[in-house]
Design a protein that fits this description.
Elements (H helix, E strand, L loop, with lengths): L3 E5 L15 H11 L4 E6 L19 E4 L4 E4 L2 E5 L4 H13 L3 E5 L4 E3 L4 H9 L6 E2 L11 E5 L5 H7 L3 E5 L4 E6 L4 H12 L6 E5 L5 H6 L2 E4 L5 H5 L3 E2 L7 H8 L4
């Protein structure tokens, strides 16, 4: 039997931030997958590992983590790939953000910080069930940085995409956007894992809901968008399943005869 692998996004795919829980049918589906021979279960997320307290109950079923949109990869508990931003890149971003008086933050491998915390920033983190980081605008001077983020009105994102054209600028919920190395994405992390495990794309599956899932959905032939996903994400998937609270993950795996 050919080995297969399934890549899952987290927020609004496995985990529902509205109910702050993982649907019972999703837990049941992952347990069935875990007990099926020759199927690897992988996470592909924009979160760092220390942000995964929200999926604690399904961690025993997960074999691989593609973290921070492909910047860090873990397999069987070991870190097998890292790709931090260069110090020059980080300084360039910090200078631009400071000139525009933005609220911004840093993601390290084991911690994260913000330059300032206000009520709007708190709400943004609460929206995705993330702990509010500590304030340390000099964090980048002493740690490797794998991603930065900032908050500004969505209509102004385009100016940062233009000014930071040597990096990837990816919008996320509300007024936030991420900044990471050019060419790095969930897709690139997936490519590395498929190569390491010697699994053909035809035996790979990917399921997600948002803008940072699009490259992944385009790359994997057996791609699935959640019913609650963005309209743009749905355009890039081969199959659209039900909403997260309507057994979307479970039904997608049934559709592909994986469980």
């Amino acid at each position: 039997m050919n080995k297969k692998i399934i890549f899952f996004d987290i927020d609004r795919t496995l985990y529902n931030p509205n109910t702050k829980s993982i649907p019972k049918s999703t837990i049941k589906a992952l347990k069935k997958l875990h007990n099926t021979p020759n199927i690897e279960i992988a996470i592909a997320t924009g979160r760092a590992y220390y942000m995964l307290h929200i999926i604690e109950e399904i961690k025993p079923f997960i074999d691989i983590y593609i973290l921070i949109n492909g910047q860090i990869i873990m397999k069987d508990g070991d870190t097998i790939f890292t790709n931090p931003l260069t110090k020059e890149e980080v300084r360039k971003v910090v200078t631009l953000f400071e000139q525009n008086n933005l609220k911004y933050g840093f993601l390290g491998e084991h911690n994260e910080t913000l330059n300032i915390v206000d009520e709007k920033g708190k709400r943004a983190f609460e929206l995705v069930s993330m702990n509010i980081p500590k304030v340390d605008p000099d964090f980048y001077k002493h740690h490797d940085i794998y991603q930065m983020w900032a908050f500004c009105e969505r209509k102004n994102h385009c100016q940062y995409i233009t000014n930071l054209n040597s990096l990837n600028v990816v919008p996320w919920l509300g007024d936030g956007f991420d900044v990471l190395s050019k060419g790095m994405s969930k897709k690139e992390g997936i490519k590395k894992i498929l190569d390491i495990l010697n699994i053909s794309k035809e035996y790979a599956y990917a399921i997600g809901d948002g803008e940072n899932d699009i490259e992944m959905l385009d790359y994997i032939p057996n791609s699935i968008a959640m019913g609650n996903g963005s309209e743009n994400a749905k355009k890039h998937a081969r199959f659209i399943t039900d909403d997260i609270e309507d057994d979307g993950v479970y039904n997608a795996l049934i559709h592909y005869k994986l469980i």
